[in-house]
Amino acid sequence: MSIFKKLFGGLAKTTSNITQSITQIFTGKELDEEFYDDLTAILLSADMGMEAAEQIIEDIKRTAKKQGIKTEQALKEALAASIAEILTTPSALPRVHPSIKEGNLDSREKSSPPLWRGASEEGGVVILIVGVNGVGKTTAIGKLAAHYKAQKKSVLLAAGDTFRAAASEQLAEWAKRADVRIVKHDQGADPASVVFDALTSARAKDDDITIIDTAGRLHNKGHLMDELKKIDRVARKFTDTPTGVQGVTPCYKKYLVLDATTGQNALTQVEVFNDALDLDGIILTKLDGTAKGGVVIAIKQKFDLPVVFVGVGEKIDDLLPFDAQAFARAIVGLN
């Protein structure tokens, strides 16, 4: 099945809600303020957020004035174009990597989606995965490992969740399914030491990609966030040091896993974790279980953070690299 078809199927609940509502309010006549109010309500019902909804409405008004919108198809095309623009246009304000704030003139930039070519030749990639309990973090890591393994990358998992009972065993099972290596310690071990050992092993074995699991911590627990920052410092110490492969500095990405069914509460999680770690992107799980998939747009609009992967099912290959254009068309029912 193509990525677009999987994405379209995963967005079925959100798409159905939007398209059915548009059919109800669209008359084919001149678009008036009552129509725009109703369309705004539809966008908000999908959790796109007020800022994004207002921008989309202004875009639709400009399109209607310039080109005219006489059919539902034309309206959906205009909606998709506006949504895609929000998802692909970077903020005017540059994001700053923590190492730059600390005086290290690190010129690395954020990228989306995270599909690196020749990662081992460029020093390797380290991915730190964070998130609260219950969002599907361990499952997302397993599927992410399988995704890169399918691209012929050598992948190592670091079992940094030493707090939750059986967390390492669950990650080990995913490592087995994806056929990748794993470094783990006993329950209760220092998570930062697990990460240190994993990164040391990855460097020795010249692994392409290291994915670090962390305890699913409540974002209002200060000491747990401090532990996460310690792991981040260990990872940055490694990734700020050139490898023996042509002396190139490894790439370091920090992704927050969110449950799409939590709606606007996801924005609070993004804010707290982003303040603590300066995130590089979002992995959105359970997109197939919600009618509020528009939260993707709200996240990008408010935080200028890209959604890099989306989960649209239970199978190991149901974690998809995010495609803004495909998403924009799928969410308004254009296939």
Overview of this protein structure:
- The protein has 335 residues and is an alpha/beta fold.
- It has a domain of 180 residues: P-loop containing nucleotide triphosphate hydrolases (Rossmann fold), CATH 3.40.50.300.
- The chain has 13 helices and eight strands.
- An eight-stranded mixed sheet has the order 3-2-4-1-5-6-7-8, with helices on both faces.
- Helix 8 links the parallel strand 2 and strand 3.
- The protein starts with a helix and ends with a helix.
Reported by name, the CATH topology of one domain is Rossmann fold
Report mean pLDDT, rounded to a whole number. Answer: 86
Total count of strands: 8
List unreliable stretches of 5+ residues. 92-121
Estimate percent helicity: 40-55%
Class from secondary-structure proportions: alpha/beta
What is the CATH superfamily label of one domain? P-loop containing nucleotide triphosphate hydrolases
Q: Estimate the global geometry from the Cα principal axes.
A: elongated
CATH architecture of one domain: 3-Layer(aba) Sandwich
CATH class of one domain: Alpha Beta
Largest sheet: 8 strands, mixed
